[in-house]
Structure formats: structure tokens, C-alpha cells
Amino acid sequence: MNHWVAMSSFYFLKDAYQASLWAQENNFTGIELWADVPFLFVDGVKPRMLKKIGKIKDLKFSLHTPIYGINISSVNPGILTESIRQVKKALAWTDYLEIERLILHPGDSPSPLKSVRDISTSILYESIDDLLSSPGSDKTELLMENIALSPKDTLAEPDEFVDFLKTSGLNCCLDVGHANIRWGHGPDLASLKPYIKQIHISDNDGFEDAHLPAGDGVIDWSLLGGLIEKDIPLVHEVRDLNDVPAGILRSRDYIEKCFT
Q1: Where does 158-212 have alpha helices with state H?
Q2: How many other CB atoms are found less than 10 A from the CB of residue 193?
Q3: Which of 35-44, 51-60, 101-110, 238-247 has the lowest mean pLDDT?
């Protein structure tokens, strides 16, 4: 199976290069870097660091865009402008590093009312059009991640998320842990299958997005077999605070046992 690791795991807080080496040494196909404080902040990282990471042999890369204070569907023009600026700057890293996929969050709305969320969704479409015409968008695929942890989130409902993918032309990064909070898992996610190009692997209790290793929560991973195709990157995004490296490896082993 195509196992990756996410740099957002707490073990990888400080050093993206060492995180990438760990992924290589532990036989992961790739690593999902994160363009945010305190990892690789877009206004702080040096090109030489990106080039150094890119020279690690036999390791592939995807990139998660900034999320702290970022909202590409914000109704506030100032927040929206800064959010788009930071995402574009991350997208430009393709000049220094071969990035296969760029992972986006849809943002959130001031209100859970559908009429207000529809405004945020309209803004999101405009943001995506802007990003798709930006430098770097021809070198990497933009994927929308399902968040939907709150009714105020843009694209909070499964049908809204699927409609957005159909209309925008984007594919998605399925976060199984996020989906388990409000959408369910397994057959509940069947409508997403044509659009899934990457999967975030983590477990939880169905209430809190705890990012547990697969098998440590309530998700029945056997129900997801129909969504996990052979070559789709499975990005382990887990935070076992007792021993993060062991948690990541345990998560990988659990998924292997489920699907092989």
C-alpha cells in the first residue's frame, strides 16, 4: 500500500528535514509537508531548505497549505486577501520542490445558516479560480480536504462538498477522521469515491478530532475498503502523545492488516 506520513504529527514540530529523513528511513513513500508556523511558514522558510528536503532520495512530497488564521472563503476582504496570498506563496514552492498535491481547507462562515454559508461557498469558488490561474498550479494538483467539524464550516454537508467538487473540477483529500465526526464512514462516503486522490488516516471516538492511530478509535476501517484503491496515498496524520513515532508505525501496520 502507498503509505505516507504527515508532518503535522507532533513529533515533527521543529525540523522538516529530519521529519522527511524519518519518513524515508521508515520506508514511507512520501511526506505531507505543512506550510505553516511552526513548521515551514511561507514567509520564513528559505529556498535552500526546500531544496535540501527535495534531495532526499526515494521520497515523494505533498504540501498542506497554511491553516492558522487562514480562510479562503472569508467574508472579510482583509482576511481573504491575506489567506490567498499565503496559499499562493506555498504554491510557488513548486519552483524548489517537486510537490505532487497541494491540500486546501475550504474555510468557514460567520454563521451556520445555509444562506450565509452559501455566500462563503461563492467566495470559495472565486478563490479557487484565482489559485488555478496562479504560478505553480500547472505543476501540482489542488485537492480540497473535507473539514466539516462544525455546522459553520464552508461545505459542511456531504452533498455540498460533492457538488463543489463536481462544479469546481477539483478532486479531494478525504480525511477519514473528520468525516467520522459528522458524516460517518464507509458506505456514507461512497459519493466521494470518484474524487479521492489522497486519504488522511487517523482515528477518533466520533466526537473529538483526536488524530489517534488507526485502530485506536471507533472507526471500522474494514468498511473503507471500497474507497482505498491501490495507488492512493494514505497519509498517517496521528498524534500519539506518548510515543508519536510508534503511533505512526502502529497506524500503518493496522491499515496493512485491514486491507491485505
Answers
A1: 158-168, 176-182
A2: 12
A3: 238-247
Asked if 214 and 254 count as a contact pair (C-beta separation under 8 A), the reply is yes
Q: In b/e form, how buried is each residue of 149-169, taking b as 16+ CB within 10 angstroms?
A: beeebbbbebebbbebbeeee
Three-class SS state of 245: helix
Phi and psi, residue 99, nearest 5°: -110, 120
Q: pLDDT tens, 170-203? A: 999 999 999 999 999 888 899 999 999 999 999 9
Per residue in 209-240, is it b (16+ CB within 10 Å) or e — as a string? eebbbbebbebebeebeebbeeebbbbbbbbb
Residue for grid cell 473540477: 169
User: Is the pLDDT reported for residue 162 higher than 90?
Assistant: yes
Mean pLDDT of the 92-98 span: 93
Which residue from 171, 80, 167 is spatially nearest to 120, judged by alpha carbons? 80
Bridge partner list, 203: 212
Following CA atoms 97, 252, 206, 104 in sequence, which dihedral angle do they give, to the nearest 10 degrees? Answer: 10
Which residue in 136, 101, 105, 132 sits closest to 231, CA to CA? 101
Phi/psi region, residue 7 (left: phi>0; alpha: psi -120 to 50; beta: rest), is alpha
Buried b (16+ CB within 10 A) or exposed e, 15-54: ebeebbebbbeeebbbbbbbbbeebbbbeebeeebbeebe
Domain 3-259 bears CATH identifier 3.20.20.150: yes
Tell me the whole-structure pTM to 2 decimals. 0.95
Domain positions in the chain are: 3-259
pLDDT digits (tens, 9 = 90+) for 61-78: 999 999 999 999 999 999
Measured CA to CA, the distance from residue 33 to residue 53 in angstroms comes to 10
